[in-house]
């Protein structure tokens, strides 16, 4: 009898093995051996804190399957679907947050996710807490309310950031000219003459440029372009021309998404912004009616990197910048960004293989550092190519669509895109992350239409 049962058992085991063997772990981890700074712990509230432990479990399970040819079923094993892994990583990074915008971002990215009911409950609670101070301050009946006693000023808790899905900015006290997107939805009853409209747009652009220039005066690093810097208009970001060359992109000893390391030859000339786009520079676009007004809570300092914006928002900015400057502005490609970040080096960080305090704006990179926001652009040393804040500060959007690895990636530095791409690449790490995310090869992904408070960008353009 056992001679009949044994072959059946072997067939069942082999069938299960073939089903499970094809799955590969793709969580965005920072392994302890490859990252010197430990970031997985109870005190770490970073976006990617759980990935290492989950990845190690997956690797161990995969090794056992390959060695013995048997299927393993373990309670608590990370799901093999990459999208589920990222959802769990996303949730664990915000589950203790006290900001409504974090839960709004999660629900935007995963409306039917496994944590959606809990996220909705916490979002409702935070909104209710935020509305209580407003209701209390509005209760006394007074003929005219002084601005200092307004609900926004009286609220002791931070106001929630705009919902990520909201593309139209909230109405400010003195609204800027209506953005083109809004004009297509509701045409005015009596449109102004074309001459008057053009004059108003010119005046708004001039006022925006003056405001950006005035804000820049407070920061010598951005108010005095160097002799080799490029600035196409008064409100345009300062650019640095990048010499064509080749480099090794990615790294084979770390996260799977950064493999395989491959040679890339950039034969075209391009220029990249010396700094991340600042709040003042973004507000120039807002004043011209071409960009949405962003969260004031996260964009208070004019010389800080603008943040809490989506890839789609960044596209609006480069479109406006191209119009006012007459130059072909765009987001850098991922290869262009890493080439500029490495600045001719092939070490782990752009300054070497070991972490150096005071070189990047991150939570364990040394002072200056503030938990509530990144420092102003230019507060840390530039790399050998003259670019500031390529490590830390804010994550920076690039043009490429997200791919789980560099397999079949282009080797000429051009953007790696896909039709109807919804997930884009972010690079560089942020002030909220640990030193392990400051490596030149670090990459991650985000939904292109979702705003997040640690995401910003810098611009590029072709040199023709």
Short structural description:
This protein is α+β, with helices and mostly antiparallel strands and 464 residues long. 33% of the residues lie in helices and 10% in strands. The protein contains twelve helices and eleven strands.
Please describe the topology of this protein.
Layout lengths: L1 H20 L29 H18 L13 H13 L5 H10 L6 H23 L12 H4 L25 H6 L8 H23 L3 H4 L5 E2 L8 E4 L2 E5 L12 E5 L3 E4 L5 H9 L23 H15 L3 E2 L3 H9 L52 E7 L21 E5 L15 E5 L7 E3 L2 E3 L2
Parallel strand pairs: 7-10
Antiparallel strand pairs: 1-2, 2-5, 3-4, 5-11, 6-11, 7-8, 8-9
Helix pairs in contact: 4-5, 8-10
Strand content: 5-15%
Secondary-structure-based class equals: alpha+beta
**Overall helicity:** 25-40%
- Taken from the alpha-carbon principal axes, the silhouette is globular
Order of strands side by side in the largest beta sheet? 1-2-5-11-6
In sequence order, what are the helices and strands, one letter per element? HHHHHHHHHEEEEEHHEHEEEEE
Largest sheet: 5 strands, antiparallel
Helices, by number, come to 12
Q: Work out the radius of gyration.
A: 25 Å
Q: Runs with pLDDT <50, length 5+?
A: 16-81, 137-198
Q: Could you state the oligomeric state of the chains shown?
A: single chain
Total E-strand runs = 11
How far do the termini sit from each other? 80 Å
């Amino acid at each position: 009898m056992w001679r009949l049962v044994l072959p059946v058992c072997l067939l069942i085991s082999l069938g299960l093995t073939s089903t499970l063997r094809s799955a590969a772990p793709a969580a965005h981890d920072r392994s302890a051996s490859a990252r010197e700074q430990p970031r997985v712990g109870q005190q770490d509230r970073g976006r990617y804190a759980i990935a290492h432990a989950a990845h190690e479990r997956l690797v161990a399970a995969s090794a056992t399957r390959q060695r013995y040819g048997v299927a393993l079923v373990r309670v608590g094993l990370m799901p093999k679907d990459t999208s589920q892994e990222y959802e769990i990583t996303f949730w664990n990074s915000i589950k203790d947050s006290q900001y409504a915008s974090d839960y709004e971002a999660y629900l935007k990215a995963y409306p039917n996710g496994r944590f959606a009911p809990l996220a909705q409950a916490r979002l409702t609670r935070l909104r209710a807490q935020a509305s209580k101070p407003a209701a209390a301050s509005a209760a006394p009946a007074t003929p005219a309310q002084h601005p200092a006693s307004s609900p926004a000023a009286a609220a002791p808790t931070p106001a929630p950031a705009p919902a990520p899905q909201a593309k139209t900015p909230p109405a400010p006290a003195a609204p800027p000219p209506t953005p083109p997107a809004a004009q297509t939805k509701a045409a005015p009853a009596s449109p102004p003459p074309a001459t008057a409209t053009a004059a108003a747009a010119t005046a708004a652009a001039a006022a925006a440029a003056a405001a950006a220039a005035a804000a820049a005066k407070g920061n010598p690093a951005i108010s005095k372009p160097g002799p080799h810097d490029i600035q196409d208009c008064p409100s345009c970001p300062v650019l640095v021309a990048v010499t064509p060359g080749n480099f090794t992109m990615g790294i084979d000893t770390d996260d799977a998404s950064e493999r395989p390391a491959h040679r890339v030859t950039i034969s075209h000339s391009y220029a990249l912004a010396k700094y991340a786009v600042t709040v003042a520079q973004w507000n120039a676009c807002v004043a011209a009616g071409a960009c949405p007004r962003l969260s004031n809570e996260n964009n208070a300092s004019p010389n800080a990197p603008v943040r809490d914006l989506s890839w789609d928002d960044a596209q609006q900015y480069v479109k406006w910048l191209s119009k006012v400057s007459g130059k072909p502005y765009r987001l850098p490609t991922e290869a262009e960004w890493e080439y500029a970040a490495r600045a001719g080096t092939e070490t782990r960080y752009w300054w070497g293989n070991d972490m150096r305090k005071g070189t990047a704006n991150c939570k364990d990179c040394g002072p200056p550092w503030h938990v509530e926001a990144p420092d102003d652009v230019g507060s840390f040393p530039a790399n050998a190519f003259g670019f500031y804040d390529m490590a830390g500060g804010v994550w920076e959007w690039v043009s490429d669509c997200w791919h789980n690895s560099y397999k079949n990636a282009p080797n000429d530095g051009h953007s790696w895109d896909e039709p109807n791409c919804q997930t884009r690449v972010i690079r560089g790490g942020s002030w909220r992350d640990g030193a392990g995310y400051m490596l030149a090869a670090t990459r991650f992904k985000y939904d292109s239409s979702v705003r997040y408070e640690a995401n910003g960008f810098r611009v590029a353009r072709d040199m023709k």
